[in-house]
């Protein structure tokens, strides 16, 4: 196959490209390097079946041309990360809606298989223990900028299914939950790399709120495996699928696990959400995926153990801090 990956120089994208190339697929990446980087795919660049094109997803003629050459498209490019969403709401909405629409239109016109990355953020304020794809979605008001990300991803989902309904577009929507692994950076609010970095440097680990909010983390290797299998899974066409794991933990326990795993002397500090993200910020207590739909489609679902996820992240962060010259 030849796969076109938007946002392929980002965290999930680079892992996806590496796994796809290892399976013998040719991969074209389009990325504007806003949150991704050339370093993420540096090892792939010499490979003739891999191509990195540095460009913005708003370049529709380039999107059309790359879609035309592809057998399948995985659309990951997006404005990502809590901090970015709060600080740059216009870019968040424009990138996440306009670029997705451009990709969907090209795939419709050229009849291409496409997977669109959405997010567990669309589950919004829901308080159930396990979130299912058919659940009602309750998001907060536009006066709270945080919800712009969820709203934009939800528009993407509606667009994707509308193109499927009206034009038989072979699309699958991936509702990705917290994904973790080497190469992820902490400055967009991603909690695990942020904690690991601080622990390795012996700095205080900052937990927002009371720390009893719970999250489920999934190893990026399993997410990527699921994406590659879903490309070829015809039964997933026209569907929304949760892609997430089972390693649920409170943020307090996560901070302690990171300290243990790094043998760090860091202390844990709690600060109010308002101090980190401003007055109108709100966070969910819990967010777990019901992965029955994924299991029915693929015969398996991610099952990551927290310590197994942390190991490679710690190794990777250690190398990066040494490269930065801040760790000996
Ligand atoms: N990582 C997670 O836990 C998670 C959870 C839910 C959903 N997602 C979704 O998965 C996708 C990938 O996320 P990620 O964690 O790898 O983030 P990332 O920031 O590492 O990757 C996004 C990539 O898109 C690129 N990009 C952004 N705007 C672009 C534009 N206009 N044109 C071209 N390229 C552009 C960035 O440079 C980056 O390389 C996103 O759609 C995100 O919303 C991720």
**CA distance, first residue to last residue:** 43 Å
The structural class is alpha/beta
Bound molecules: nicotinamide-adenine-dinucleotide
User: Which class of the largest domain in CATH terms?
Assistant: Alpha Beta
The amount of helix comes to 40-55%
Low-confidence stretches: none
With strands numbered from the N-terminus, the spatial order across the biggest sheet is 3-2-1-4-5-6-10
What best-fitting shape do the alpha-carbon axes yield?
A: globular
| Major beta sheet summary | 7 strands, parallel
- Which fold name is given in CATH as the topology of the largest domain? Rossmann fold
Write the H/E string, N to C.
EHEEHEHHEHEEHEEHEEHEHHH
Number of domains: 2
Task: List the total number of helices.
Answer: 11
CATH superfamily membership of the largest domain: NAD(P)-binding Rossmann-like Domain
Average of pLDDT: 93
Radius of gyration: 19 Å
* DSSP strand count: 12
- What oligomeric state do the depicted chains represent? single chain
**CATH hierarchy: architecture of the largest domain:** 3-Layer(aba) Sandwich
Report on this model:
The protein is an alpha/beta fold and 328 residues long. It folds into 2 domains: 2-180 and 218-243, NAD(P)-binding Rossmann-like Domain (Rossmann fold); 191-215 and 247-287 and 305-324, Alpha-Beta Complex (UDP-galactose 4-epimerase, domain 1). Helix content is 42%, strand content 17%. It has 11 helices and 12 strands. It has helices at 11-22, 60-69, 82-87, 89-110, 147-167, 191-201, 220-231, 251-262, 273-277, 292-298, 306-324, and strands at 2-6, 26-31, 50-54, 72-75, 113-119, 171-176, 179-180, 205-208, 214-219, 240-243, 247-250, 268-271. The protein has a 7-stranded parallel β-sheet with strand order 3-2-1-4-5-6-10, sandwiched between helices. It has a 3-stranded mixed β-sheet with strand order 7-9-11. The protein has a two-stranded parallel sheet with strand order 8-12. Strand 1 (2-6), helix 1 and strand 2 form a beta-alpha-beta unit. Helix 4 (89-110) packs parallel to helix 5 and helix 8 packs across helix 11 (306-324). The relative contact order is 0.13. The model has no long low-confidence stretch (mean pLDDT 93). The structure holds nicotinamide-adenine-dinucleotide. Nicotinamide-adenine-dinucleotide binds at residues 7, 9-13, 30-36, 56-57, 76-80, 95, 99, 117, 119-120, 176, 178-179.
């Amino acid at each position: 196959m030849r796969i076109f990956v938007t946002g392929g120089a980002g965290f999930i994208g680079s892992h996806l490209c590496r796994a796809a190339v290892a399976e013998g697929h040719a991969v074209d990446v389009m990325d504007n390097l806003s949150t991704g980087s050339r370093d993420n795919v540096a090892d792939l660049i010499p490979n003739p079946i891999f191509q990195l094109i540095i460009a913005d997803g708003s370049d529709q003629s380039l999107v059309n041309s790359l879609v035309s050459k592809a057998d399948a498209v995985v659309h990951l490019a997006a404005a990502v990360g809590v901090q970015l969403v709060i600080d740059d709401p216009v870019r968040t909405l424009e990138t996440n809606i306009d670029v997705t629409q451009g990709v969907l239109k090209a795939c419709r016109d050229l009849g291409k298989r496409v997977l669109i990355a959405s997010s567990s953020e669309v589950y919004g304020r829901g308080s159930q223990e396990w979130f299912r794809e058919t659940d009602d979605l309750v998001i907060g008001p536009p006066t709270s900028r945080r919800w712009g990300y969820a709203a934009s991803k939800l528009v993407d989902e509606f667009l994707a299914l509308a193109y499927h309904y009206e034009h038989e577009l072979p699309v699958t929507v991936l509702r990705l939950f917290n994904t973790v692994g080497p190469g992820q950076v902490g400055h967009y609010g991603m909690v695990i790399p942020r904690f690991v970095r601080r622990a390795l440097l012996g700095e205080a680990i900052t937990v927002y709120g009371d720390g009893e909010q719970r999250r489920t983390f999934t190893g990026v290797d399993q997410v990527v495996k699921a994406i590659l299998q879903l490309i070829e899974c015809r039964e997933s066409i026209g569907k929304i699928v949760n892609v997430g794991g089972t390693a649920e933990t409170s943020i307090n326990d996560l901070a302690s696990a990171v300290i243990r795993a790094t043998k760090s002397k860091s202390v844990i500090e709690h600060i109010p959400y308002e101090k980190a993200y401003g007055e109108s910020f709100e966070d969910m207590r819990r967010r777990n995926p019901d992965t029955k739909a994924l299991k029915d489609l693929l015969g398996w679902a991610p099952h990551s153990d927290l310590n197994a996820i942390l190991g490679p992240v710690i190794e990777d962060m250690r190398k990066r801090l040494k490269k930065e010259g801040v760790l000996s």
